[in-house]
Write a structure and sequence with these properties.
The complex is a heterodimer of chains A (113) and B (113). Chain A is mainly β. Helix content of chain A is 0%, strand content 56%. The chains are: A mainly beta (113), B mainly beta (113).
Chain lengths: 113, 113
Amino acid sequence: GENVEQHPSTLSVQEGDSAVIKCTYSDSASNYFPWYKQELGKRPQLIIDIRSNVGEKKDQRIAVTLNKTAKHFSLHITETQPEDSAVYFCAASDGGSQGNLIFGKGTKLSVKP
Amino acid sequence: DGGITQSPKYLFRKEGQNVTLSCEQNLNHDAMYWYRQDPGQGLRLIYYSQIVNDFQKGDIAEGYSVSREKKESFPLTVTSAQKNPTAFYLCASSLAGGLGELFFGEGSRLTVL
């Protein structure tokens, strides 16, 4: 089955710097890769996603890149702000007909003002 | 106001007791999911349902049971057979199954005394 590895588990940056979180997946049939943000005490929310027919997607300060050959995808946050502090989860669809998501273990991002 | 509602938010249970967590959605989504979240473990799929009166086991279904008698409702029962039930439980729904955005509830924190 699908396995998703996420690194780093914790990340601390200064406000205004960039942050990069990386994930690898094992199932070459995976075709959907979302990223969720979970602020402390709140529910996870989708912030960006990418499908396997696209190599890169941007939404303001957030971008995701996908390398299907290497089976890895990354989240890039530029000009970080304190409100970006949260736990970020990557996920990959399991390649089956149901397309269930397999989540990484999360990255706790801290942005220091 | 559309959304997904979980109850109760906090629940305490004695060992050997079954407990049922409620999940209701008014988003008209066909697919519903239960995830378990433990510190440093990401989100792990317990059960999912793509349609009324049908559901499938996820990766960690042992000790849990579900029902899907109505489109809006997907309750999860944590049975006494679950060896380590203390955790944070998240319910989610999706319009497009696993290949679309998951909308999460606020979660239920279960503590076994």
